[in-house]
Write a structure and sequence with these properties.
The complex is a heterodimer of chains A (271) and B (94). Chain A has 271 residues and is an alpha/beta fold. Chain A has nine helices and eleven strands. Classes of the chains: A alpha/beta (271), B alpha+beta (94).
Chain lengths: 271, 94
């Protein structure tokens, strides 16, 4: 992990030492519905807070196309709900802030880190975004992609954005999750997401679709090989064990789907 | 009549304000956007701080109300109180 992340005094070495001393659980890609995935994020974050789970890396696989909006976004401002429904796209709101993302099965790479907050202690939130994704940037560069971390929360090539990260924090633990565009249908995305002129007003470009540079255009291996490489590189850096989602965690997540993430009251909260 | 204002912070995030005006004061304020805010419950504190604020005040007054309402431990990333006030100003004046 690189010292170039920050000029100094930002705790990279101290935090890295804690990450290296910890025993990580790695949960491989599991196919779930969009609502279940965002519910699992809260359930696993709660498990870390409760102490029943240690630091964890989880990879996601999408069962169906979805738009995942940020915790603070207005549904109607961001999503054409009618177009989404007509196209069979589920809309869910996640626990973390940030922007809407459009995902399709096999077209994105998504992972979550669940970390006891002591393991990021002393590091600013801003620095922690870059730190949590540094291994991924390094790994993808190794595969030939010309990527760097662009604060606050983007993984980008010189052409455009490749991925984005978001965090949710609770007393006791931090959730950091990232989605990388593997390939994309810009036309589909533009039909579903409302990306207003104001949003791209400081980017100096005319089309929001141009802002995304999918990873498949930058590496010569398959999506599965990329995921395998990411996992292998993480395992290489840290002490790890093969992990899975416990039946208690699955039950907690199902309950969150019924009470929150699958409910219109949550999805439309900021209308 | 409802008002809608959007402001993209240069190098930062989008801030959106939706509200009504009742007796020359902001009412039914909703603040949204693709920013980060810790803890997340502070989103309601920001909106509540603007509730009842006079529409003919300077935007800096609206920003001050937000600053006064927020606990110092709250972290706003990609936006700040002045950016929320700018979204409100745009909602009023286009």
């Amino acid at each position: 992990m690189s010292r170039r992340l920050c000029a100094g005094g930002c705790m990279v070495d101290e935090v890295l030492a804690k990450w290296r001393a910890a025993r990580w659980s790695i949960i491989p890609e599991t196919v779930e519905s969009p609502a279940m995935h965002v519910a699992l994020d809260e359930a696993l974050l709660n498990a870390v807070i409760a102490g029943t789970r240690g630091p964890t890396l989880r990879f996601w696989a999408w069962a169906s196309p979805a738009v995942i909006i940020g915790r603070f976004q207005s549904l109607k401002n961001e999503v054409d709900a009618e177009a989404a429904q007509a196209m069979g796209v589920t809309v869910v709101r996640r626990l973390s802030g940030g922007g809407a993302m459009y995902v399709r099965p096999g077209a994105s790479i998504t992972y979550s880190l669940y970390v006891p907050d002591a393991m990021l202690q002393g590091m600013t939130i801003r620095d922690s975004y870059a730190f949590c994704d540094a291994w991924v940037v390094q790994s993808l560069r190794k595969l030939g992609a010309d990527l760097s971390y662009v604060p606050l929360n983007d993984i980008a090539s010189p052409v455009g954005k490749v991925g984005g990260a978001a965090q949710a924090r609770r007393p006791g633990a931090v959730l950091h999750h990232t989605t990388i565009a593997w390939n994309m249908d810009a036309g589909e995305m533009m039909r579903i997401l409302r990306i207003g002129r104001e949003k791209i007003s400081d980017k100096g470009i005319g089309s929001a679709a141009k802002r995304v540079h999918p990873l498949s255009e930058q590496v010569s291996v398959s999506r599965e090989q990329v995921v395998a490489t990411l996992e292998a590189d993480f395992r290489h850096q840290y002490i790890w064990e093969a992990g899975s989602i416990s039946s208690e965690e699955m039950a907690a997540a199902s309950s969150l789907v019924h009470s929150k993430y699958g409910m219109i009251a949550w999805t439309q909260e900021l209308e | 009549m409802t008002h809608h204002g959007e402001y993209k912070v240069p190098g930062g995030k989008l801030v959106v304000a939706d509200f009504s005006v009742v007796a020359n004061r902001l009412a039914g304020v909703r603040v949204s956007g693709d920013f980060f805010l810790f803890p997340d419950g502070a989103i309601h504190v920001i909106a509540a701080a603007l509730e009842g604020a006079p529409v003919d005040a300077l935007p800096s007054h609206w920003a001050d109300r937000i600053r006064a309402a927020l606990d110092p431990s709250v972290e706003m990333l990609g936006f700040g109180p002045d950016d929320v006030a700018e979204a409100v100003r745009r909602g009023l004046h286009g």
